[in-house]
Amino acid sequence: FTATGPAADGRVGRATYFVHELFPAAISLERAYFGTPGSAGNPGTPPSMTPTEDGLWDIALPLLSAIHAVHSAGAALRIVDPAHVLFTDPHTVRLSSIGVLDAARPERNLPLPALQSEDLQALGRLLVSVACQNAGAAAPTSLRRSLSFVHASYSADLSRLLMLLLSPPEAAHASVHDAVALVSGRLMTRLAQGVGYADALRTELSKEQENGRLLRLVLKLGLATSRPSLPANESYGDHPDRYLLRLFQDLLYGSSDEEGRPLISFAQAVHALNKLDLGHDGRALLTGREDGAMVLVSYHELKQVLERSFGEIAAAAEQ
């Protein structure tokens, strides 16, 4: 976005700002595979990752997918290089600074097909550099030797992809669609893995959702039974509604066997709480530990009592 504000020389002018999502602890592909060079008083840092076949595909497939999306929209990325590819976790890569170059230094001399072809060439050079773990491996003077190393060290699929990406534009007229078609089998495998991962996440999310629902219910129950009075109701804690809820708490937490030993059954407690939350028509036999009272009440009635009791607390809090 653009805004008006003071410049460095004190004059007021318009400036353009780019806002990007923050990924804490993300590192660039350049730092991960090539490290940082040393200087006087600074020894630099060694690479933190070693290239592998799976690691190269973890980079190639999402970047190819990103290029496909941008090219299909009638644009070009222009920033496919190790400094602008970020690892936000060990198996997830993202592109940074998208659109900055177009705004700061628009390319007016080259047609769009040439810019898109350069994206593919840049991806090929990036993969060669990572495969050789050498930032200069894709230089014109080293490229032939580097490709020979890739052919000897990695799969034929990767070699074919690199040959397509690095083919001269005037010779092959390769597009991102050709590259996607070439690796379609691996993309389908990755899609299946993504679907399985999404299913696993949904399963875990549903568990947390259930935990949160029961936690709110337990908190309401605790608030309703532990408060002796309210500002406008000194006898709040002595009301029959709260007595009934305390009996239900005894059912949840105070059960014992015939010999008086505590019964610890999480499944039974969760089952009772689920019935309470649902307002089930089933009945529970509540027994008072001190007075020996026995009350047969439905979960539907208990839910009404709980909501009424909590509603009184909520109303008092808002006064």
Explain how this protein is built.
It is a single chain. With about 325 residues, the chain is mainly alpha-helical. Helix content is about 55%, strand content about 10%. The protein has 12 helices and 7 strands. The chain has helices spanning about 30-35, 55-70, 100-105, 110-130, 145-155, 155-165, 170, 175-180, 185-225, 240-255, 265-280, 300-319, and strands spanning about 1-5, 10-15, 25-30, 85-90, 90-95, 285, 295-300. The strands form 3 sheets. A 3-stranded antiparallel sheet has the order 3-4-5. Strands 1-2 form a two-stranded antiparallel ribbon. A hairpin with a 6-residue loop joins strand 6 and strand 7 (about 295-300).
Short description:
The chain is built from 12 helices and 7 strands.
Which structural category do the helix and sheet elements fall into?
mainly alpha
Order of helices and strands: EEEHHEEHHHHHHHHHEEH
End-to-end separation in angstroms reads 44 Å
List low-confidence stretches: none
- Strand order across the biggest sheet? 3-4-5
Largest sheet: 3 strands, antiparallel
How many strands appear in the DSSP assignment? 7
Oligomer: single chain
The amount of helix comes to: 40-55%
Number of helices: 12
Report the radius of gyration as a whole number of Å.
32 Å
